[in-house]
Structures are given as C-alpha cells and as structure tokens.
Design goal:
With 56 residues, the protein is mostly helical. The protein has a domain of 38 residues. It is built from two helices and no strands. α1 packs antiparallel against α2. The longest helix is centred in the C-terminal third of the chain and has 21 residues. It starts with 10 loop residues before the first helix and ends in a 7-residue tail after the last helix.
Length: 56
C-alpha cells in the first residue's frame, strides 16, 4: 500500500518534515505562523545549499 504522503529521496527526511508539521499544527495561531516561517527559512537554506544540476 502506498503512503499518502510524498516521499523525499530519504524516507526519514520526509517523516521528519511530517513530524515537524504535526507539531506546528498543534500550536496556537501566532506561534504557528512563526514556526511556519522558521520552517520555510530552514527549507529554503537547505534547497539553496544543495547540489546544482549542470545539465543543459
């Protein structure tokens, strides 16, 4: 049976993200907004630091 959640290249990374989202969703609205902003910043840094694809 397939997982209902998209899987990253590493299943553990996907599970970590889903866990973080569950924690964020359980917070009051103001804290939730700050937590989503922090998560966004962390994911953006990770994406920017990743390998680049030099294919045409």
């Amino acid at each position: 049976m397939e997982s209902p959640h998209p899987v990253a290249s590493d299943g553990a990374e996907s599970d970590d993200l889903l866990s973080a989202l569950e924690v964020i969703e359980g917070q009051p609205l103001a804290e939730r907004a700050e937590a989503y902003e922090a998560l966004h910043d962390a994911l953006a840094r990770r994406l920017e630091s990743g390998p680049t694809d030099s294919r045409p």
